[in-house]
């Protein structure tokens, strides 16, 4: 039997550090449910001391996903008592909770970031691990920036943390500086010493992709004794991202003779998980991305197509069915019924809706199907994303402030090469407002007209539009970033009409600013 490699998924923590990828509570719960289906061993659900919202999300994941289940739930803390307490309070509801502590080990972190001596930083880590051990039996210590650290100091840190009670040692290549051969031999040396010190401690790696080597470094570490890998779905994460879960898992599965190791991942759930994360976070998967990119199993040239028809393995090293890719996609239309729609949602891993929730979602589906004729997988993610957005609005402060929000009643945009102009009609409570403006383009005119109505000094910093799914009626998804009063706000919206999608995104940004103003006033 080959060696089992533990999979620690940090999509909801390191993955969520991608600017603009923030998820609401319901989306996080949905992703966590899907990670459980994928059978990851550990979910890192967030950084609870960073905000009340993140604390709450970690706690709900621990309660809803981690209870009555072997899956471990963890969250990240600095070597700071308050952070460790926040992790403990949020993850303790899980059946298998874990406290994860991180602290730098490289000279630049020790000297420049902390302004301390190596011994002082090491003592801080020991104190943190000892404190965490008074709260929970399972504690992971991450030696941040290990690949740039002085090796003997790194080892003395690991030794001290194991003696203080850490049950998992994670060796991060925090800035993606490592190279597979070098990283592999570092892990080999650590593993060799660790086995003599305490062979019950799990050795783990966490690799970033700054030089495009995160997966290669992770695999090199596995070859050299690492028992556990940290990764994210679609390789998302800080800067250039992390090792992609699907790449590491499929490399182990496809080349058992090289690695002699396996994971417990249900690989047929990989595509569903990838699409869910990409859809909810609004982060497209690069078309040529290994395993989950749109072209990963597309064959375009004649010689390849001929070969494939004769024998698939001429040009395919992975069976697409192994990652949950069907050869066929069912196309839904306004004539589709509840059974077909429910089946398609379940196929995408979303079968948790109550009957009442499903009726709301089905109504949304019919509205979309009427405007768009054919509804594809990508559209279904947008429907669920909008559903959760509405639900979170109703459940949080939004509900009590809803009469303060602007709603779009009508818009008219005249696209004229000299003077593009826009007229808008917005409603707030019982009041109707109209605004008109000219601009350098239709979106500029539209946003100027809306700014005139809401009377907030908003600066548009970024505007992105992309088409979701296929066909000429594809949904346009608009994502904007605006600045107001020195703060940045991100808002998204989708519609088959791109001008409407643009207007809805701007309204969402305006309403986020309004809710923040109202919350600040009342606290
Ligand atoms: C490699 C990684 O991915 S680590 C995870 C990164 N994730 C995050 O940063 C989560 C989001 N962060 C946050 O919400 C905030 O930064 C918080 C809540 C963690 C801290 O906020 P603030 O208290 O305002 O501090 P701020 O972020 O400005 O500075 C970080 C402080 O923590 C210290 N610090 C950084 N890392 C650590 C650590 N591992 N252990 C102890 N202290 C640390 C820094 O030295 C600095 O302290 P200083 O003020 O004495 O110089
Ligand atoms: C918290 C640690 C593992 C991390 O994210 C890093 O070092 O990149």
Automatic annotation (TrEMBL):
Pfam families: HCS_D2, HMGL-like, LeuA_dimer. Residues 5-271 form the Pyruvate carboxyltransferase domain. CDD domains: DRE_TIM_IPMS. Keywords: Acyltransferase, Amino-acid biosynthesis, Branched-chain amino acid biosynthesis, Cytoplasm, Leucine biosynthesis, Manganese, Metal-binding, Transferase. GO terms for molecular function: 2-isopropylmalate synthase activity. Signal peptide: none annotated. Residues 407-523 are annotated as: Regulatory domain. Pathway: Amino-acid biosynthesis; L-leucine biosynthesis; L-leucine from 3-methyl-2-oxobutanoate: step 1/4. InterPro entries: 2-IPM_HCS-like (IPR050073), 2-isopropylmalate_synth_dimer (IPR013709), AIPM/Hcit_synth_CS (IPR002034), Aldolase_TIM (IPR013785), LeuA/HCS_post-cat (IPR054691), LeuA_allosteric_dom_sf (IPR036230), LeuA_bact_synth (IPR005671), PYR_CT (IPR000891). Mn(2+) binds at residues 14, 206, 208, 242. Its cofactor is Mn(2+). It comes from the Bacteria. It catalyses: 3-methyl-2-oxobutanoate + acetyl-CoA + H2O = (2S)-2-isopropylmalate + CoA + H(+). Its EC number is 2.3.3.13. Homodimer. Belongs to the alpha-IPM synthase/homocitrate synthase family. LeuA type 1 subfamily. Catalyzes the condensation of the acetyl group of acetyl-CoA with 3-methyl-2-oxobutanoate (2-ketoisovalerate) to form 3-carboxy-3-hydroxy-4-methylpentanoate (2-isopropylmalate). This is 2-isopropylmalate synthase. It comes from Paenibacillus yanchengensis. The lineage of its organism: Bacteria, Bacillati, Bacillota, Bacilli, Bacillales. The gene is leuA.
């Amino acid at each position: 039997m080959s060696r089992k490699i533990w999979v620690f998924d940090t999509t909801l923590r390191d993955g969520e550090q991608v600017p603009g990828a923030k998820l609401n509570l319901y989306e996080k719960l949905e992703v966590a449910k899907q990670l459980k289906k994928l059978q990851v061993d550990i979910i890192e659900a967030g950084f609870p001391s960073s905000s009340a919202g993140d604390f709450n999300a970690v706690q709900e994941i621990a309660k809803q996903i981690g209870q009555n289940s072997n899956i471990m739930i963890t969250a990240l803390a600095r070597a700071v008592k308050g952070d460790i307490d926040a992790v403990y309070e949020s993850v303790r509801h899980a059946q298998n909770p874990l406290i994860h502590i991180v602290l730098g080990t490289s000279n630049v972190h020790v000297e420049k970031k902390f302004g301390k001596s190596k011994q002082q930083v090491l003592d801080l880590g020991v104190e943190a691990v000892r404190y965490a051990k008074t709260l929970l039996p399972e504690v992971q210590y991450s030696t941040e920036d290990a690949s740039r650290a002085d090796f003997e100091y790194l080892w003395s840190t690991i030794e001290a943390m194991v003696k203080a009670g850490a049950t998992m040692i994670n060796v991060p290549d925090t800035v993606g500086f490592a190279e597979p051969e070098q990283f592999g031999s570092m892990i080999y040396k650590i593993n060799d010493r660790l086995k003599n010190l305490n062979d019950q401690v799990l050795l783990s790696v966490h690799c970033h992709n700054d030089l495009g080597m995160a997966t290669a470094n992770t695999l090199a570490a596995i070859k050299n004794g690492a028992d556990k890998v940290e990764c994210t779905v679609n390789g998302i994460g800080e800067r250039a991202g992390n090792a992609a879960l699907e790449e590491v898992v499929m490399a182990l599965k496809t080349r058992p003779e090289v690695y002699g190791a396996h994971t417990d991942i249900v690989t047929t759930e990989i595509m569903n998980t990838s699409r869910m994360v990409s859809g909810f976070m609004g982060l497209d998967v690069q078309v040529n991305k290994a395993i989950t990119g749109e072209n990963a199993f597309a064959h375009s040239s004649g010689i390849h197509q001929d070969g494939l028809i004769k024998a698939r393995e001429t040009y395919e090293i992975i069976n697409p069915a192994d990652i949950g890719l069907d050869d066929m996609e069912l196309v839904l239309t306004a004539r589709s019924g509840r059974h077909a729609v429910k089946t398609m949602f379940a196929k995408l891993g979303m079968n948790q809706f109550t009957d009442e929730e499903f009726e709301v979602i089905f109504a949304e589906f019919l509205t979309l199907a009427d405007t768009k004729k054919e509804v594809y997988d990508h559209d279904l993610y947008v429907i669920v994303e909008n559903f959760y957005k509405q639900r979170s609005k109703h459940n949080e402060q939004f509900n009590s402030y809803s009469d303060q929000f602007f709603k779009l009643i009508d818009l008219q945009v005249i696209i004229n090469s000299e003077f593009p102009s826009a007229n808008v009609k917005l409603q707030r409570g019982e009041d109707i407002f109209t605004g008109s403006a000219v601009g350098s383009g239709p979106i500029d005119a539209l946003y100027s007209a809306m700014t005139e109505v809401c009377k907030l000094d908003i600066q548009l910093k970024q505007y992105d539009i992309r088409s979701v799914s296929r066909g000429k009626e594809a949904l346009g998804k608009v994502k904007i970033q605006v600045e107001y009063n020195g703060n940045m706000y991100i808002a998204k919206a989708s519609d088959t009409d791109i001008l409407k999608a643009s207007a809805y995104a701007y309204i969402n940004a305006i309403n986020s600013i309004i809710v923040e103003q109202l919350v600040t006033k009342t606290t």
